[in-house]
Design brief:
- By secondary structure, this protein is mainly alpha-helical.
- Among the domains are: 35 residues, no CATH class; 96 residues, Homeodomain-like (Arc Repressor Mutant, subunit A, Orthogonal Bundle); 68 residues.
- Helix content is 50%, strand content 3%.
- Strand 1 and strand 2 form a beta hairpin.
- 5% of the residues are buried.
Length: 416
C-alpha cells in the first residue's frame, strides 16, 4: 500500500502558480510525456509531398554529335542528349524562319519587269541581298554596292522590290483569285521621314512655342464650349418664357370656351429651367400648405435674395396666409420672377459680349483691316457692316482670340 501511494504521488503533476491553464497544457500531452526538444509534424494535412527516390535506373544520357538543318555549311556540334533521342533532328531548327523572295526568269524580266532607271544586274544584286538579309532593308542599304551601281536610298530599294513582287503576283495568279498584293508608297515614306527629322531638329524655343500654342488652343476651345452652353441655356429660357405665356393665356380663355377636360390635362412640357420647379407632395398623411411654399434646394442663395428683393419692391408679403389659392398664386408669381431674373441676366451677358465684339471690331478698324463701323451698324459709305465671322476670317492673321469674356459681366450687384 505504501508503494502504491508513492507511485500515485509521482504520476500527478501540479500546475505552477501564476501559469495559465492553456500554457500548462502545451507542456505535456495526455500521456504525460516530456515536452519534445525538436518540433515534429505528425499531421496528414496539406503539405508538399517528399520525393520518393526508388532504386530504379535513370534514363541514360549520351554525348553525341548533331548538325543544324538551318545551316548550309554542314558544321558539326556536340551536346548531351538522351540516348532515346539519338538520330532525331535538332529541335530548335524549326524556329529558323526564312522569307520567300520571288525568283524571276530572263523572259519575265524582259516582258514585265524592265525599267529604264534600273538595269538587270542592279535588280539581281538587290534580290540577292534581300535573300541574304531577310528583307532587312536598312542592312541591305548598308551592304549595297554603291560604287558599281547608282546610289539609292532605302525607299528606292523598297519601291523597286515591292513593285516587282506585285508584278510577279499578278502575272502568276490564276484568273478569278483574290490577291493581297503588297503596296509600298515611297513618297509617303519620304515625307514621313522628312517630317520626323524636322520634328527631331526643333530648337527648345520652338518646342516651348508649340506647347504655348496648344495651351491657347485648348483655352479657345473651352471658351467656345462655354459660349455654346450659354446659347443653349438662353434658348431654353426663351422657350420657357413663351411656353409660360401661352399657358397663362390658355388658362384665362378656358372658362369662356369651356374646353374639354382632355385638352386641359394635356399641357405642353415646360423645361426644368422655367422658373422654379416645386416638388409634389403625394405622400399619405397630413401635410401643411406652407410646405408647398418652401423653395426647393435647387434655387441658389443669390436667386433667393433677388427674389425676396423683387417681392419687397412689388409690395408682396414674403409669408402670406397659406390658403389653397394664395399658395398656387404665390408659387406662380415666384416662378415667373425667377424666370424674369434669369432672362435679365442672360440679356446682360449678351449685351456685354456684344460690347466686347464692338470693341474688337473697332480695334480691327484701327489696324486697317476693315472699315470703321457707324452708329447703326453701317459703314460711312452706306454699306452694311461685316458680320462677326467675316471679321474673324479677314483678321485671323492679326488677332487671335486668347482673352475670353468673363462668365458674369455684371460683377457689380445690380438692382433687378
Amino acid at each position: 500500500q505504501k508503494k502504491s501511494k508513492k507511485s500515485s504521488e509521482t504520476l500527478t503533476f501540479k500546475r505552477p502558480e501564476g501559469m495559465h491553464r492553456e500554457v500548462y497544457a502545451l507542456l505535456y500531452s495526455d500521456k504525460k510525456d516530456a515536452p519534445p526538444l525538436l518540433p515534429s509534424d505528425t499531421t496528414q494535412g496539406y503539405r508538399t509531398v517528399k520525393a520518393k527516390l526508388g532504386s530504379k535506373k535513370v534514363r541514360p544520357w549520351k554525348w553525341m554529335p548533331f548538325t543544324n538543318p538551318a545551316r548550309k555549311d554542314g558544321a558539326m556540334f556536340y551536346h548531351w542528349r538522351r540516348a532515346a533521342e539519338e538520330g532525331k533532328d535538332y529541335p530548335f531548327a524549326r524556329f529558323n524562319k526564312t522569307v520567300q523572295v520571288p525568283v524571276y526568269s530572263e523572259q519575265e524580266y524582259q516582258m514585265y519587269l524592265h525599267d529604264d532607271a534600273w538595269t538587270k544586274a542592279e535588280t539581281d544584286h538587290l534580290f540577292d541581298l534581300a535573300r541574304r538579309f531577310d528583307l532587312r532593308f536598312v542592312v541591305i542599304h548598308d551592304r549595297y554596292d554603291h560604287q558599281q551601281f547608282k546610289k539609292r536610298s532605302v525607299e528606292d530599294l523598297k519601291e523597286r522590290y515591292y513593285h516587282i513582287c506585285a508584278k510577279l503576283a499578278n502575272i502568276r495568279a490564276a484568273p478569278g483569285t483574290d490577291l493581297k498584293i503588297p503596296v509600298f508608297d515611297a513618297g509617303h515614306e519620304r515625307r514621313r521621314k522628312e517630317q520626323l527629322e524636322r520634328l527631331y531638329n526643333r530648337t527648345p524655343e520652338q518646342v516651348a512655342e508649340e506647347e504655348y500654342l496648344i495651351q491657347e488652343l485648348r483655352k479657345i476651345e473651352t471658351r467656345k464650349k462655354e459660349r455654346e452652353k450659354r446659347t443653349q441655356d438662353l434658348q431654353k429660357l426663351i422657350t420657357a418664357a413663351d411656353t409660360t405665356t401661352e399657358q397663362r393665356r390658355a388658362e384665362r380663355k378656358a372658362p369662356k370656351k369651356k374646353l374639354p377636360q382632355k385638352k386641359e390635362t394635356e399641357k405642353p412640357a415646360v423645361p426644368e429651367t422655367a422658373g422654379i420647379k416645386f416638388p409634389d407632395f403625394k405622400s399619405a398623411g397630413v401635410t401643411l400648405r406652407s410646405q408647398r411654399m418652401k423653395l426647393p434646394s435647387s434655387v441658389g442663395q443669390k436667386k433667393i435674395k433677388a427674389l425676396e428683393q423683387m417681392l419687397m419692391e412689388l409690395g408682396v408679403d414674403l409669408n402670406p396666409m397659406p390658403t389653397e389659392e394664395i399658395v398656387q398664386m404665390f408659387n406662380e408669381l415666384r416662378s415667373d420672377l425667377v424666370l424674369l431674373y434669369e432672362l435679365k441676366q442672360a440679356f446682360a451677358n449678351c449685351e456685354y459680349e456684344l460690347q466686347m465684339l464692338r470693341h474688337r471690331y473697332e480695334a480691327l478698324a484701327k489696324a486697317g483691316s476693315i472699315g470703321p463701323l457707324g452708329a447703326e451698324g453701317t459703314h460711312p459709305d452706306g454699306q452694311a457692316g461685316l458680320g462677326i465671322e467675316e471679321v474673324k476670317g479677314d483678321a485671323k492673321d492679326q488677332i487671335i482670340d486668347v482673352v475670353g469674356a468673363p462668365l458674369t459681366p455684371n460683377s457689380v450687384r445690380r438692382k433687378v
